[in-house]
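Friendly challenge for the regulars: who can give me the structure tokens for this chain first? No prize, just bragging rights.
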Amino acid sequence: MFPKDWFKINDKKYLDAISTAGVIGLHMVSSTVVGLGMGWYLDRWLGTKPWLTGVFLILGIVAGFKNVWLDSRRLLKAQDKEDAERFGPKD
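First reply, four minutes later:
Bragging rights claimed.
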């Protein structure tokens, strides 16, 4: 199906892209789960059910989106740098 050397030639480029996509998804899910877990634990400890769960869930979601945004900015800067090396600086 693919040429024999296809994966060896493009190995680093595609594996980096796959790993970055996985990390972005992991940031979103893990921060939401951590926020939910912290809120649930604090609600059980302080007896404030369901208020802290909701607050920390929202904070976890916001933190997840912030991490996705920062990762996207980092990727765009790396892509701009690669494009500048390949095609020259932008006008």
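Residues 9 and 88 are 24 Å apart (CA to CA). The longest helix spans residues 51-87. Your move, everyone else.
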